[in-house]
Write the structure tokens for this entry.
Amino acid sequence: MDIYEPAEDSYLLQKEVQAHAEGRVLDLGTGSGIQGLAAIKSPRVREVLSVDINENAISELQKIIRQQKLRKIKVLKSNLFENITGKFNTIIFNPPYLPQDEGIEDAALYGGKKGWEVSEQFFHKASSHLISNGNILFLFSTLTNKEKVEEIIGHHLFQFKELSSEKMAWEKLYVYEITKTDLLRELEIKRVEEIHFLAKGKRGVIYKGIQERAELIKTHFAKKETISIAIKTKREDSQAMGRIENEVNWLKILNKKGIGPKLLFSSKTYFAYKFVEGALFLDWIETARKKEVLAVIKNLLNQCYIMDNIGVNKEEMHHPHKHIYITKNHRPVMIDFERCSRTENPKNVTQFVEFLARIKKDLKEFTYDPDKLRELAKEYKQSRDLEIIINFLL
Ligand SMILES: Nc1ncnc2c1ncn2[C@@H]1O[C@H](COP(=O)(O)OP(=O)(O)O)[C@@H](O)[C@H]1O
Ligand SMILES: [Mg+2]
């Protein structure tokens, strides 16, 4: 494999490395070694680990280190973070950033089909290898797609600052200094890792991560387990105030009744709860058996009934499709409680029954008459007797 020759991009990044690298430095995809060799010249840099996937690059750099008797720098073969342990003050990355050309393979040039895939892999693991107030010195080109790069940075709860740029014939090069956002730092104190964007809801942005939890069991042995968690934050463009606090308050109340994903921890601006592994209700129905569907509907009606009794409206229960997940064990878990509000006129059961009447056409094995079901919903408003509805469906 050829070693990537230093070019304009390398020199642009090198200047910023001299100015901004410090402490323990990781030089990822070192190639000729130009960044690592620049870093060790800085008095602020204590030690450098230069890595590359390319064996030739590694042995060439080792030769230089031996010849010049360099002490601050070590080399290691690694594909991105694969063989890396520990945390660094600075991570330097000049990624392969060109969109893949048909039929040509060169790990030093091509960053995947679209050019940014390798960068995305990088950001997925980067935070675990960077100290809380460390920095990443990152080079990319407009050929990679600038908006996409900035989106990937934000999706991993990092923030960026442009350090320098250079216009070339076909592209423009940028060096960004990338640091952790306050939210990312806070989540890492809670031992959440591999945090990345999951979904944009109507009002919130949801991230996913993993958290190692030690559960004290009877014998005082701490059993360690890693769980997937979801983190909900307010969308920046959302005007709704107090939504997070509202959802946190209701999750606390409803969790006690077995409703909603388990709340783990929260602040005024975000909360973390269990990630629900499962399929959306209407997708799940397509492959489920009638008996299973019945049990799930019964369970959901009961959850609605509990909310009715508490005197809270979840809202949107007449089109809850995106807010009901069915787990592997056929347990329905509702999400999104941010519009919950106290009411004297609870509508959870009646709205959900209206939904059941509407989706009758998707429930091919069921024979109930949707209009009769709607009538029973009206009766329920008066009697608050859930049994008549459940018995009717059976
Ligand atoms: N605990 C969770 N487990 C799994 N997926 C979740 C979880 N919370 C949110 N999501 C995903 O994020 C999306 C948006 O979440 P939601 O709470 O509906 O936000 P919003 O209030 O902005 O609509 C959901 O449709 C779902 O795909
Ligand atoms: Mg929603």
Observations:
- The first strand starts at residue 23 and ends at 28.
- The chain has three domains: 8-180, 185-274, 279-393.
- Residues 198-199, 201-204, 206, 230, 232, 261, 273, 275-276, 322-323, 335-336, 338 surround adenosine-5'-diphosphate (ligand 1) (CB under 6 Å).
